[in-house]
Structure formats: structure tokens, C-alpha cells
Predict the 3D structure of the following.
Amino acid sequence: MASIDLGTSEKLLAELRGWVEIETPTTDAAAVNRLLDRAEAGLREVGAALERIPGQGGYGDNLLARTPGEGAPLLVVVHLDTVWNHGTLAGPMPFRVEGERAYGPGIYDMKSGSFLAFHAVREILRQRVPTRRPVTLLFTPDEEVGSPTSRAIIENEARRSAAVLIAEPAGGPQGACVTARKGVGRFDVRIHGVSAHSGGNWTEGRSAVVALAELIRTVHGMVDLERGTTTNVAPVWGGTRPNVVPPEAGCEIDLRVATAEDGKAAERAILALAGERDGIRIEVSGGMNRPPMVESAETLRLYEAARALAREVGYDLPKQHRGGGSDGNFTAALGIPTLDGLGCTGAGAHAPHEHILWRDLLPRGQVLARLMQTL
């Protein structure tokens, strides 16, 4: 098959900068759509078949770009939203290049990967490079909050696809791709007590904060590192003033599990914390948000194909299991072979030092493009 010319890392970084400098917090649909407009225009220019699905629930639009071909397509999933609020570029995290590193909000998670997938599809179409099967590129607007409006679209496209590639960031110092991820659960806790003066009427009060503290200890006790189960309680809130027995308190709970069975068991245990006793009422809502992505023989075959392509480009591609979730959790749970973590190398996702190793843009993009061409 003919090779795909993706240019140079310098040229890729110059165009990626434009993506980073469009701030796209998940909660601002118009902002996410501004970047989606740019991707849509670039793909329309080279003849991609486009389908834009209007956003719902205050989130941005989804965009499907399809290349021609016969048979079940290869699905590539990327998201354009980030965790960073407007003003981050003008404040603590301007786009900048320092040596081998390029910094900016969302550049690692996951605008570099989204851009590389966009660029690969654009060049496949521009250069009329044949692929073994059609490619479907899906841009989503809400991955950072659990993909509430895009999950159904992702799953619908995955069911008709032969395999799925996820261009989330490569992990660790060696830039590993991802063959398994933990499942993710999210819960919201609201505790209602009885207010009273903390001095004169202490016995009449029922402290929601004390009840919350007891609940937190219970949730922390669910941690089982050998099984791969962890819980984290944050943020936490409660009370009004030091001299008032707090009538309200609450928290959020993050749950990570290695297997679907452990997820069901932990979900039942956390939801069972709801109830009433001694004047305290506890409400618990939520559940498993993303099923575990379990490493399968089909996923390993995808990995070996990617690793062989990486060797051709000149680097080794290790694999890893990751605790964080992605949209690959959804597609893998459907039984569709899924390979994740195919974005750029770097570090600092969701952190002030977020960056990519920009000289890796070309070799990482080459592997992603060759997978689109050859799978």
C-alpha cells in the first residue's frame, strides 16, 4: 500500500496550536462547536462524508466523518472537550514550547490525539490513499464528564464496526498504548440532619457532617488494592457556621473496578448506604458510568499490529492497563476489538504542567494513520 505523507512534527505542531488556542471546556457547547467547525471544514474540503448530530443537554455537537470503502468500517473515536475553563490560556497555562515539550490546556488530553486522527483522515482523503476498509472518525463533546450524550452514538457506530481505535494520550515515559482500563462509577451523596444551637441545644441536633464522616470511612473501607478496587471521596461539603449543628452535608464518590462483577457488587454496597436512622436521612444516587475495558485476544492482535508499525517507524510501543476510563470502555464492553492510548506522548493530564513531547507528533501520527490504512 502507498504510504501517507503527514508532513513534519514542526508543521503538525503549528496547526495543533490553533486547536489548543480554541478553549473547549465541556460545559460550553458553543466553544466546543467552534473547534468542531474547524475540523468539519477541513474534512469537507477533502470530500469526507459528514454527519453532524446536534448537541443535547447543553453539550456540543457530535461529528461523524466517513471515508469511502467496502465492508465494516474502522471506527476512530476522539473528544474535543477539556477540563480547562475559559481564561486558562490567558492565565496560568499559555501555549508555549520549551525544548522538547509543548504546553497548553488540553494539549495532551486529548487535542493532540484528536488532531492527529483528524489529520490522518484528511491526508488519506487528500492523497487518495486506499484503505483496506472504510474509516469512520467520530468527534464527541462530553467525554470529560462521562459521555452522557455521546455514549449512544459511540455504541451505535461501534456495533457496525470491525474494530475501534481511541486516540487518548499515550501513557508513561515510553508512551504506552492501552489494552485495558478500569470501570468507573460515580455517586452523589446528600445527607439531611437536624439543625440546632451547638451550645444551648446540642442534644436536639443531628449532625449531617458526623454522618458524612462515618459514611466516608465506610466507603474508604471498600478499597481492595489486590482486586483493583479503589474509592475516592471528593469534593466534600457540609455545615454553615461553627456554632450550628450542621443539617446538611454531602460528597461525591469515585469508584474504580477491574471487573464488571466487582462493579456491580460495589455499586450495590454504595447505594445501600442510603436510608434513615436517628433523625439522619441519607440519599445516594448514581452508579457505574463506564464498564471495565478488559484485555482480550482481539485487542492484543490490534496491539501487535500497532507495535509492528511502530517498529517500522523506529520506536517500541509498549502496552499498559490504565486506571482511568475512556470511551474505549464502552466499545470494548460490546465485544468490539478496541485499542486505546494511540495519541501523543507527554504527561500532566488535567494538571498545570500538561504537555506533549511534540517531536513525537509525526511518528505517533504515522502509526495511527497506518492502522487506519491497513487494519
Remarks:
- The mean pLDDT is 97.
- Residues 12 and 68 are 25 Å apart (CA to CA).
